[in-house]
Amino acid sequence: MDWKAVLSVIEIILSVLLVIAILLQQQGSGLGSLFGGGGGETYRTKRGAEKLFYNLTIIAIVLFVVNGLAIAILSANS
Questions:
Q1: Does residue 59 contact residue 14 with C-beta atoms inside 8 Å?
Q2: For residue 14, is it within any domain?
Q3: Residues of the chain scoring pLDDT < 70
Q4: Domain membership flag for residue 56
């Protein structure tokens, strides 16, 4: 079993999941907020699905980095 190939496939899957998780977050939606016209810029806590996607995004980022480091270590050792 080639671990580098398996980890590479996992890296691709994680990257797709990470993109989806980021796109599903609705905070600051619209181009108006991109250029400073946010309007409702009050502090609020994340609840429900927003909190779930936020936490899943953090988990996906950590897994992505750890998997990338594992690929780099395996590549350096071979």
A1: no
A2: yes
A3: 26-43
A4: yes
